[in-house]
Task: inverse folding
């Protein structure tokens, strides 16, 4: 296998143009927050497919596996086997963890790659597996920053509002995000309130996810009513966080149809379609 530092793989791909979001009317209102927690896929960036769970549902892009084996010099003819085995392996791991009572388990994607190739007597390191994983992800699921997302984060930070992440994600999510937004994430987000599913072993909307978020914030003296969760998925982000008392901002910038209950929109729950509206709802002017 050709050796490439996985951090350098990102530079092989051009940055897509920013996405402006869509037109629509603001709904609801929010109290001024002390903390804002952002989802990633569909919220800060627009993905071609979505997070790993969305890819698992759609099982798309056999071509991305074929291109990955060519890029890294793996044996010809195994692309389709990897494609089928990839989703099958993830489902297998999920089912195994569900028997332990984890409703929405998460995988370590580099370990999935290592196990798949080990079944073909190809032994690779974790670093090699990460190179394969991030290359395939960029081929199958490129992302574009939503216009104004980076500016929104900077202005919230300037107002001493703590910023965090609540994302169904893998090791490559944050590097991809930082590159797309053209910002140093370490200068923007408070690492203590960055919640990534691959680091905790379970994903939204598992109730343990936002229980963990609420618990960590409570330890710092932050009440959930002082926190806004910004997300694009009505079930995973909005309903899941509202159950634990958080304010929620339903971001519909992708323009895709989702069923949601308009009766729940109001005080502490709002809807925005682009980042100008997000800034308005979060109290940012200009």
Result:
């Amino acid at each position: 296998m050709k050796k490439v530092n996985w951090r350098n793989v990102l530079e092989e791909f051009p940055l897509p143009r920013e996405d402006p979001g869509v037109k629509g009317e603001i709904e609801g209102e929010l109290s001024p927050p002390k903390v804002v927690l952002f989802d990633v896929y569909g919220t800060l960036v627009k993905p071609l497919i979505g997070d790993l769970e969305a890819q698992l549902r759609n099982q798309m892009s056999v071509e991305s596996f074929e291109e990955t084996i060519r890029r890294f010099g793996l044996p010809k003819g195994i692309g389709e086997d990897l494609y089928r085995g990839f989703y099958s392996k993830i489902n297998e791991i999920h089912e195994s963890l569900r028997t332990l009572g984890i409703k929405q388990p998460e995988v370590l994607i580099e370990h999935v790659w290592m196990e798949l190739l080990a079944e073909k007597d190809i032994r690779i390191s974790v670093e090699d597996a990460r190179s394969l994983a991030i290359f395939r992800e960029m081929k199958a699921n490129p992302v574009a920053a939503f216009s104004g997302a980076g500016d929104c984060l900077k202005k919230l930070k300037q107002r001493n509002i703590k910023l965090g992440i609540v994302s169904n994600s893998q090791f490559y999510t944050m590097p991809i995000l930082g590159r797309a937004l053209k910002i140093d994430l370490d200068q923007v987000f408070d690492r203590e309130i960055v919640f990534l599913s691959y680091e905790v072993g379970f994903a939204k909307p598992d109730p343990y996810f936002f229980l963990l978020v609420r618990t960590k914030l409570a330890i710092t003296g932050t009440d959930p009513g002082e926190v806004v969760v910004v997300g694009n998925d009505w079930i995973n982000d909005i309903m899941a966080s509202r159950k634990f008392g958080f304010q929620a901002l339903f971001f519909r910038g992708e323009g895709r149809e989702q069923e949601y209950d308009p009766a729940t929109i109001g005080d502490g729950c709002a809807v925005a379609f682009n980042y100008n509206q997000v800034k308005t709802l979060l109290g940012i002017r200009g």
